[in-house]
């Protein structure tokens, strides 16, 4: 059974052990999680030391979270043994200010860190997968959708070429699945054109005469129907 | 009229058979007459979970049914149970095989309700969503979810998705949340079902609650306490 608690463990270089390793962690209530399964002690620690090239073994994928704090650090996520000794040396050599900064980052994680946590990444991936699985539409349906859209639009516009109409299905992080239909249009049909309004602006020319003069030349062309 | 419930999941190994055995036993302890059917004819496991593997006399393949095709044997069996002269069962639980092939389609034919077992991993959630689509296509609208093998320590540490997230994404009512418990493995090995333990195991308690919700036909709400509060003030550091 998994028990979550606070653990402060003394630093020993357990290089003779394949699996469990113990390392010095500040007694932060937030991040030390020890799950004891039966007999074996299995310590999961997120080493969040800034600026340290840690090749850590990913225990339950904890390394991704530490990468968030360390910024550009590239971690190899799969099973490289952690170098406890160099980690400790670096920790000892950090100045007080660096440690304080680090402690602040651990206790109050920035939104960027929380966003790139494993759970959030999994959630985003799952959302995308669920959307694309749920909205997978057959080719036959795609043809029919295109045909119907072309038919509906051809009442209003003249379509350039029926073969060039394309339907694409994509996913967007905010909206979910997006269907886009691209229709090349030659021109609007006569009865729907906006020519009947007198006084609409058909052309605008804009000349910037420079900053010194403080004025801008703009020329508007108005539509006036011929009698 | 018996309630015919299929326990399915899509993905294998998430705990369908464990759920069938334990929920079925909890229902029996509540006083209902329960029949549990293992619909995975080739790879049966329900007998192991219940400790009855030495007492298996016949499987459904060996019965002579009026239908020549063995696939319909399950439907015939459920109908025969329903039409019993003496007391007919109150619950018929059907433990489905993994996958979405013919085995599953056969198994869900006689049922009107479904319990979907899933874990908090992206793989089983995706498969659960597929199975939901399949169940709804086959006319089973009453689908409830049991989330199994939950590790609250990992949820707190933002390594595992929370039950709340899953409920939002899959959109199914929640029947129960079962924590990860090593007692499950021990009781499987001994062939002594989990819910019969004294003192009760955590997962066993959760199964009993899920069984009671199944009887009463209501669902639970995922608890917010699993999630970290968004704004942690300075003093919460001391408070714990």
Give a verbal description of the structure.
The complex is a heterodimer of chains A (227) and B (240). Chain A is of the alpha+beta class and 227 residues long. Among the domains of chain A are: 78-125, no CATH class; 136-189. Chain A has 6 helices and 8 strands, in the order E-E-H-H-H-H-H-H-E-E-E-E-E-E. Chain A has a two-stranded antiparallel ribbon with strand order 1-2. Chain A has a two-stranded antiparallel ribbon with strand order 3-6. The longest helix of chain A is centred in the middle third of the chain and has 17 residues, at 118-134. Chain B is α/β, with parallel strands linked by helices. Chain B contains 10 helices and 6 strands; from the N terminus they run βαβααβαβαβααβααα. In chain B, strand 4, helix 5 (122-137) and strand 5 (142-150) form a beta-alpha-beta unit. In chain B, helix 1 (16-29) packs across helix 9 (202-216). The termini of chain B are far apart. The A-B interface holds A 1-4, 29, 31, 33, 35, 37-38, 44, 60-62, 65, 107-108, 114, 117-120, 122-123, 125-127, 129-130, 133-134 and B 122, 125-126, 129-130, 133, 151-162, 165, 169, 179-183, 202, 232, 237, 240. Chain B: One of its GO terms (cellular component) is cytoplasmic side of plasma membrane.
Task: Report helical residue fraction of chain A.
Answer: 25-40%
Question: What is the spatial order of strands in the main beta sheet of chain B?
Answer: 2-3-1-4-5-6
Strand content of chain A: 15-25%
Q: What shape does the CA trace of chain A take?
A: flat
Q: What's the β-strand tally of chain A?
A: 8
Proportion of residues in extended strands of chain B = 15-25%
CATH architecture type of chain B: 3-Layer(aba) Sandwich
Mean pLDDT of chain A: 64
How would you briefly describe this protein structure?
By secondary structure, chain A is α+β, with helices and mostly antiparallel strands. Chain A has helices spanning 63-70, 84-93, 96-107, 111-115, 118-134, 139-153; strands at 33-37, 40-44, 157-159, 166-172, 176-182, 185-188, 201-208, 216-222.
């Amino acid at each position: 059974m998994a028990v979550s608690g606070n653990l402060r463990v003394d630093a020993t270089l357990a290089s003779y052990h394949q699996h469990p390793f113990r390392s010095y962690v500040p007694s932060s209530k937030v991040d030390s999680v020890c799950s004891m399964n039966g007999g074996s002690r299995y310590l999961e620690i997120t080493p969040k030391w800034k600026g340290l090239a840690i090749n850590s073994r990913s225990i339950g994928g904890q390394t991704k979270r530490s990468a968030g704090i360390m910024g550009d650090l590239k971690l190899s996520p799969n099973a490289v043994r952690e170098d406890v000794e160099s980690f400790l040396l670096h920790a000892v050599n950090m100045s007080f200010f660096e440690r304080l900064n680090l402690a602040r980052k651990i206790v109050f994680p920035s939104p960027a860190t929380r966003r790139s946590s494993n759970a959030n990444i999994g959630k985003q991936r799952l959302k995308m997968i669920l959307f694309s699985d749920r909205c997978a539409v057959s080719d036959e349906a795609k043809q029919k959708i295109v045909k119907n859209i072309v038919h509906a639009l051809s009442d209003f516009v003249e379509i350039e070429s029926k073969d060039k109409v394309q339907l694409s299905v994509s996913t967007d992080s905010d909206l979910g699945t997006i269907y886009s239909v691209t229709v090349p249009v030659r021109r609007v049909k006569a009865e729907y054109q906006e020519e009947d309004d007198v006084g609409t602006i058909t052309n605008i020319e804009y000349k910037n005469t420079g900053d010194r003069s403080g004025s801008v030349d703009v020329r508007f062309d108005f539509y006036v129907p011929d009698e | 009229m018996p309630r015919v419930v299929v326990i399915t999941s899509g993905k294998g190994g998430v705990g369908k058979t464990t759920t069938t055995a334990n929920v079925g036993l909890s229902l029996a302890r509540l006083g209902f007459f329960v029949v549990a059917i293992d619909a995975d004819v080739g790879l049966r496991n329900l007998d192991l979970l219940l400790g009855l593997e030495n007492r298996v006399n016949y499987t459904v393949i060996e019965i002579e049914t009026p239908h020549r095709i063995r696939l319909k044997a399950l439907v015939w069996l459920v109908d025969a149970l329903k039409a019993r002269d003496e007391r007919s069962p109150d619950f018929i639980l059907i433990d489905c095989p993994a996958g979405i092939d013919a085995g599953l389609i056969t198994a869900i034919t006689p049922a009107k309700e479904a319990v979907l077992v899933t874990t908090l991993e992206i793989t089983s959630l995706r498969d659960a969503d597929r199975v939901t689509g399949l169940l709804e296509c086959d006319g089973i609208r009453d689908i409830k979810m049991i989330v199994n093998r939950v590790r609250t320590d990992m949820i707190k540490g933002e390594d595992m998705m929370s039950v709340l997230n899953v409920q939002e994404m899959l959109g199914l009512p929640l029947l129960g949340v079962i924590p990860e418990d090593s007692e499950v493995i021990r009781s499987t090995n001994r062939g002594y079902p989990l819910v019969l333990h004294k003192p009760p195991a955590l997962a066993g308690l959760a199964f009993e609650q899920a069984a009671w919700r199944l009887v009463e036909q209501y669902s639970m709400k995922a608890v917010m306490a699993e999630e970290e509060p968004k704004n942690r003030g300075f003093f919460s550091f001391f408070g714990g």
